[in-house]
Amino acid sequence: MKLFRLKVILVAFLMVTSMKAQEFKTGRISVLELQEKKHPIDTSAPAAILYKKGRTFFTYDIKKGFVMNHEFTYRIKIYKKGGLSWANFEVPYYIGYENLSDEMLSFSDAVTYNLENGDVIKTKLNSEGVFKTKINDDWKMAKLSMPNVKAGSVIEFSYLLKSENLVRFPVCDFQYTIPVNYAEYKTEIPEYYIYKTILKGYVDVKSDSKVNQGSVSFANEYGQTRLMTYKQISSSYIAKDVPALKEEEFVDNIRNYQCSLHNELERTRFPEQPVKDYSVTWEGVAKTIFENKNFGNQLAEINYLVNDVKLLLKSEDSKDERLKKIFKFVQEKMNWNQEYGYYADKGVVKAYEERTGNAAEINFILISMLRLAGVEANPVLISTINHGIPVFPGRTVFNYVVAMVDIDGKLILLDATHKYTTQNILPLNALNWTGRLIKADGTSQEVNLLPSVPSVVNCNVMAKIDASGKITGDLRSRKTNYEAYSYREKFAQTNTDNYVERIENSYNGVEISNYEVKNKNEDLLEPVDESFTFQSVNHTEIIGKEFFINPMLFFTMNKNPFLQENRKMPVYFGYPTQKKYMINLEIPEGFEVESIPNGINLSAGDGALTFKCFLVKNDNRIQIAVQTEFKKTMVSAEDYSMLKDFYQKIVDKEKEKIVLKKI
Amino acid sequence: MQIFKIKVLIVFSLLMSQLQAQKKEYLFSQIPDSLKENADAVVRLNQIDINIVSQRSMNIKSQRVITVFNEKGLSAIDAFENYDKKISIKNIEARILDVFGNEIKKIKRKDFKDVSAISGSTLFSDARYIYLDYTPTQYPFTVVFDSEIESSNTAFIPSWYPFKNYFVGTELSVLTVNVSGNLGFKKKEINFNGFNIEKNTDTSTQLKYTAKFILAQKQEPYCAPTMVFPRLLMSLDSFNLEGKDGNAKSWKEFGKWYYDEILDGTVQLTPETEAKIKNLVGTETDVIKKAKIVYDYVQKKSRYVSVQVGIGGWKPMLAADVDRLGYGDCKALTNYTRALLELVGVPSYNTILYGDSYKRNIQSDFVSIQGNHMILAIPYKNDYVWLECTSQDDPFGYQGKFTDDRTVLIIKPTGGEIVHTKIYEDKGNLQKSKGTYLLDEKGSLSGNISIVSEGSQYSNKARLEHVHPDEKEAHYKEYWSNINNLKLGKIVFTNDKDKVTFLEDVSINAANYANISGNKLLFSINVYNQQGNAIKRIRNRKYPFEIQRGYLDTDEINIVLPKGYEIEFLPDNFDLKTKFGEYKTEIVKTEDGSLIYKRFLLVNKGVYTNMEYDEYRLFIEQISRNDNAKIILTKT
């Protein structure tokens, strides 16, 4: 799986050739920059970041200790009117700490440059262009709106973010939706702090580190200025000519592919103090999380559940039955408040009493009940798809937790936050690569989250064409696993009339009667079975004396879903699928088959994608068997044209007609 | 005996709480079955009591009781209140009842969420709101939501909606209004017919309406809620807006007040700017030419940024600030343009309206604060030229689909006036396509086409000029989604802003366009303009429907057929005339063996009854079917 080119930069050991930083001086705007009409490489770009310069450094305060400072300067060129939105800039900052002061943010040196009659005209931003808004209890947003900006302008501004939270740096992006000509980020970190640095994305970022002398001056408790010196690790990261990041369809999370730099605290080592481990290995991360009182202790708390478990189970219940009963009980009793997280918030006891909770609380309750019932169950830490892929250890890469059960070696993933999930069916947002299973003793191991069993759609149609071209028939279909789950998520609460109206319209105007569905929301372990009777006058094209019919009727794929010519990011499917259609068509009396499409057997990507289509004529019947199978959940960008071609062949085949002729 | 005493106390208090718990309200079982039909929730009670204490003070108490049946019904709870400097929330709380009407939770003000109301392109606003963030533990459940707000903005009495949501039944909805003193309270009923709404009291100081038993409504396409849902507009002759008293019985008075109190003193500009703009205009004397120069200057200089401070978003930023900063919202940019035009002797008027691609009128027979957008009107030859000042691209005087054909209020120094903006005639919303395509023996297609768009169709296309090439490609692949394997060649645009026409020259090719069945080639003759949108079938449509803008498409396409094939089947010419429009296609064989395909489609704007909907659906279906008519060629 070479989907991600991620690099770890082990700061302390990297001593690469020193790169000469390009000379950019704040406030020195050249006439050339102002005259430039379009971006030299990406001529369609509405704007470009000419340079971005960032620096993170530490200061010291006798009361607060070390404080982090993140300083950023941007110079942005606006080429077109469409780029004017870049004259507004916003930075969120955190004010929700329990024990730390609010973060502080200030803008400075904000100037717009324009060329008027050959002269460089400067317009400075004053306080009226800066707005700060409280978004909620945890976050504030600082916004900047640059003055006097038009197509051709160059704007420049800086901001400083001060934070006492040393655990992680704000993410430093090297890639945006507009091109970046030059981006440079420097960090100066006192030897007491060791950070793990992660670089994401496809862009070439040059890095360099060295150890040198650092110092901070601070006022001691008597107000005297003191100087503290220490060794510091100075690193720089430089990227040039970074192309614009463009949205594409069928992408799991664009942030996985955007070039960005992440820093998370790994250890602290203060003089005469033991080294404190924050996050080194996945094991270490899991241990730290496990030891937090909002995790381990919450799982240890079980008394509140004992009675309910007793009431629920019979002593003769097998482990499978216990699992079924308990999962159903928790899924029905508990209600997810839409909050993610792997720590309990109000605590499991209160959550249980109130019947609502975040992901941790609900799944902890599930785990504790299962454990009480003698079923081995453990939490699995997850980073959801929205949150991005966790590849390097760190507590902040996780944001969700589910449960895993081991019944005699059979492993089953469970999530009780959603109403239609079931055994080994998690919400789609949780199907992100791997998770981390934490056992009762605090040890941990990696768990694959991607489904390996295909989700199946199985469809049987018995249909008949009459002499006027009208098609009538019966359909039976079965959906399993994620296909059943997706159906339930979308339609379990839709009433039958509305649902039928919906498929009538999406099947190009068939008329449906006798619609029936089994296991819509009763037994979630069972497939969804649907059946109905249909009639349609829209699926036979009458041209002259001939009938032209798509063999797949209303299941015909008319368009290739992959339209774009080139692809940068992998194509995401979510889960493996297998779709089978068996269609039996009876032709009207007085007609004969003039031609039927030839069969086809396609395979691509070493058998990961297959398409089979067979048609057989038998007296007055035509049998059509079509099967599409996708064994992968993702296709890499390099294989995109193969995928597009594959789909095109399917479309071409499915659009070939059966031709009937009046005798 | 201490212990005993305590026990007694406990028993007693248990009894008490049990007694209290006996109080059951809003039982699920009390909802009539017919109200549950098609409903995700039922509003048991929506009681709004408006008390207008004085010109500068208004108190609104609301109680909303909603029984929610499932997740989709959650949006009907609507438990929130807005606040800012002029609106304070006196009380806000909620109780949750279970299916049997027992209280299961009480939510106090501090447990509501308090957030900023800023969204989208708004840079700053001091507006905030408090909302109920409740995770249901069971369905159905009932929310009893109580709130009380106080506002000095008596200019904005919230409209009363007897019901608001689709798929929600309404048991009882009550409005009472009390007005102290003679403030000139007035009201206007809209779409009340056909609903069970009773007027109980109606004096100059008191008003009461009761709406009962309104069944859950299903959403139907081509019909906006504002077109059919009942609502009551309310307003005062003597009102207060963000600290400023006003008095207006007529639009003339309202406009005069707005001009004098809100717009006055906002248009001063620096002598430098004055000199600059005068210099730009030079010796030009023609009103329109002068205005064009100024409009072009504003378009190049400014950008749209919404800053909602000061008079509830009603007072524009000073023109001098817009001049300095180069940005503003619709009011700021309109007012700034007016200020510049004034400097060069061109009078113009700020115009208040509803800006939306769905046309919505200012209710001209009801004097009150209305609208959500502002544009500029320049009087010219007994009519007006309209300027959209927030756009950097719109041609001078073009109204596109955001402000066209609607009733608006223009603010003149002498007072307000109701007028109607430009109507784009159906036939003027033109798309004229002329092109060719050639099919080879393998069924592959290559061709090119010029498409000219005018009227409201111009605005659909002109945006293409500025989009990213990927988006441009996506547009054509969507527009020609009928062309399998489409590859785009050269694309050239000509945007004539003086004539307001947009020309696209596009060349395309597509491998395997035609289906091959045996020795036959089968393909749709209409390659470039297929009626794509099927109209949804609606059983028992209840409401009328509206085609808001008509249009005319004409196509003339020359088709070169592959050598070695002869025509086995050619679709017949087609001619269809209905009240919804006209459709005609024609295929002409030329001497050199090629074909000419002609297509004419005129769709008429209009409001049609629910009974006519199926007819309309059939009209579009016939077009769609004929657009897909196929030619068959056989190998010779």
Secondary structure elements and their pairing?
The complex is a heterodimer of chains A (663) and B (636).
Chain A: E1 7-9, H1 31-35, E2 47-61, E3 65-78, E4 88-94, E5 104-116, E6 119-124, E7 130-134, E8 139-145, E9 154-163, E10 172-173, E11 180-190, E12 193-200, E13 205-219, E14 225-242, E15 260-268, E16 276-277, H2 282-291, H3 296-300, H4 303-312, H5 319-333, E17 335-336, H6 348-354, E18 356-357, H7 359-372, E19 376-382, E20 400-407, E21 410-414, E22 434-438, E23 444-448, E24 455-465, E25 471-479, H8 481-491, H9 496-506, E26 511-518, E27 528-536, E28 540-543, E29 546-549, E30 571-572, E31 577-586, E32 591-595, E33 600-604, E34 609-618, E35 621-630, E36 634-635, H10 640-655, E37 658-662
Parallel strand pairs in A: 2-11, 17-18, 24-31
Antiparallel strand pairs in A: 1-12, 2-3, 3-9, 4-8, 5-6, 5-9, 7-8, 10-15, 11-14, 12-15, 13-14, 15-16, 19-20, 19-22, 20-21, 22-23, 24-25, 25-27, 26-27, 28-29, 29-37, 30-36, 31-35, 32-37, 33-34, 34-35
Helix pairs in contact in A: 5-7
Chain B: H1 2-21, H2 33-36, E1 41-54, E2 57-68, E3 80-83, E4 87-97, E5 103-107, E6 113-116, E7 122-125, E8 128-131, E9 141-151, E10 168-179, E11 185-190, E12 197-202, E13 206-214, H3 225-228, E14 231-236, E15 238-241, E16 244-247, H4 251-263, H5 271-281, H6 287-301, E17 303-304, E18 306-308, H7 319-325, E19 327-328, H8 330-343, E20 349-353, E21 373-380, E22 383-387, E23 407-412, E24 415-420, E25 430-439, E26 445-453, H9 456-462, H10 469-479, E27 486-496, E28 501-510, E29 515-517, E30 520-524, E31 545-547, E32 551-560, E33 565-569, E34 574-578, E35 581-589, E36 595-603, E37 606-608, H11 613-627, E38 630-635
Parallel strand pairs in B: 1-10, 7-18, 17-19, 25-32
Antiparallel strand pairs in B: 1-2, 2-9, 3-8, 4-5, 4-9, 6-8, 10-13, 11-14, 12-13, 15-16, 20-21, 20-23, 21-22, 23-24, 25-26, 26-28, 27-28, 29-30, 30-38, 31-37, 32-36, 33-38, 34-35, 35-36
Helix pairs in contact in B: 6-8, 7-8
